[in-house]
Amino acid sequence: MTPRLAASLALGLLPVLVFLVVLVLLDSYKLVPPRRIVRQLALGALAAAVGLTANEALRPALGLDATAHARYVAPLVEELLKGLVLVALLVRRRFGFLVDAAVSGFAIGAGFAALENLHYFTVLRDTSLVLWTVRGFGTAVMHGSTLAIMAVVAKGLSDRRGAVTAATIAPGWLLAVALHSLFNHFFVSPNASAALLLVALPAFFAVVFRASEARTREWLGTSFDTDQELLALVVAGRASESRVGAYFEELKRRFPGAVAVDLLCLLRLHLELAIRAKGLLLMRKAGFSVPPDPDFNERFAELRHLERIVGPTARRALAPVLNLSDRDVWQFQLVTGR
Fold it and tell me: Quick one: 27 and 64 in the same domain?
C-alpha cells in the first residue's frame, strides 16, 4: 500500500475511532467496559453490511437517483438498522445512565461508519485526501452522533416512563433520521458540514456527561447508604425494626416457611452484591484500576439460582423491597461484564 493510500484509509477510519476512545476515557466511572465496546463496534459493522446490501437493492427498485436516495431513503434504512441494535441493548437493560447510552450509541455508529468507509475505500480506490477527510471527519462522525443522540433521548424517555416502549424509542429515532437526512442534503459545503459537526458534538457530549455524572453521584450516594443500612439490619437479625421487617412478616403469612427463608437469603445476597457493585464504581471514579472479583460471578450465579427457586410470584412480592429498577439490574451486568 502506497503512503497516499495509507493516509486516505487512515483519514477514513481513524477520526471516528479516536473520538470514541476519547469518550471512553472521559467517562470517569468507566460505565462501558472495553469488551462491550468491541462487541458494539462489531454489531455496528454488521448493521452496515446489511445496510449496504439493502441500499444497493432499494435504489434501483425505487427508481431513485443517487442524490435522492442518499437524502430520503438511506437515512431511514441506516438509522433503522443501527437503531435496532440500540433497542436490543435498551431492552436488555445494558444502560444505567445517559452517558453509557451515549457512548454505546456512538460505538455502534462508529462500527457502522468504519465498515462503510472501508467498503467505499475498496470500491472507489480513490486516494483524494479531501474526500477521505470529509468522509472520516464528517460522514463517519455523523453516523456515531445520530445514534448517540437517539440513545440519549430513548434512555431519558424510558427512565421517565419506567419502560422501553415504541413511544420512548420513536422520538429519538425520528430525530436521528432527520439529522442524517439534513447532513446528506449538504446545504453547506461538505467541509463546512464536517467542521460544524466537530464543533457541535463535543458540546453535546459535555452536557450529557455533566448531567449524567451528577445523576450517577446522586444515585450512588443515596442507594449505597440505603443498601448498607438495610444489610446491617438483616445481618444483625434486626430487620423487624424496619418497614422491610414488617413487610417480611406479611410475606411469611402468604408463603411457605422455606420460601420465606429463601426470600430473606435472596434479599441479603442482593444487597451484598449491590454494595460491592457500587463500591467498584466509586473506586473507578477515584482512579483505581480494580481487578475483576472472581467471587462476584459465583455469588451472582447463586443469586440467579435463588431467584429460580423462589419462583416468579415470590420474586414479584419481593420487588418492593429490592426496588428492582433497570438501573439496579444494570449494575450487576456492569460488574459481571455481561
Answer: yes
Contact between 83 and 150 under an 8 Å Cβ cutoff? The reply is yes
Q: How many CB atoms lie under 10 A from the CB of residue 321?
A: 19
Helices assigned H by DSSP within the chain: 3-26, 34-62, 66-68, 74-91, 98-124, 129-134, 140-161, 166-185, 190-235, 243-254, 257-285, 294-322, 326-336
Do 147 and 26 fall within a single domain? yes
Residue 15, exposed/middle/buried by CB under 10 A (0-12, 13-18, 19+)?
Answer: buried
pLDDT in tens, 299-312: 778 888 888 888 88
Residue 193 shares a structural domain with residue 53? yes
- Are the C-beta atoms of residues 197 and 145 closer than 8 Å to each other? yes
CA-to-CA distance for 144 and 166, rounded, in angstroms?
Answer: 22
Look up cell 476515557; give the residue: 25
Per-residue pLDDT at 174:
98
**Residues composing the chain:** 338
Please tell me the total count of domains within the chain. 2
Number of Cβ atoms within 10 Å of the Cβ of 238: 11
Which DSSP state fits 95? -
pLDDT in tens, 59-93: 999 999 999 999 999 999 999 999 999 999 999 98
pLDDT at position 244, please?
A: 62
Q: End-to-end CA distance of the chain, in Å? A: 39
- Condensed to tens digits (0 to 9), the pLDDT of residues 91-104 reads 998 898 899 999 99
The answer to whether residues 147 and 33 belong to one domain is yes
Q: Are residues 113 and 32 in the same domain?
A: yes
pLDDT for position 293: 66
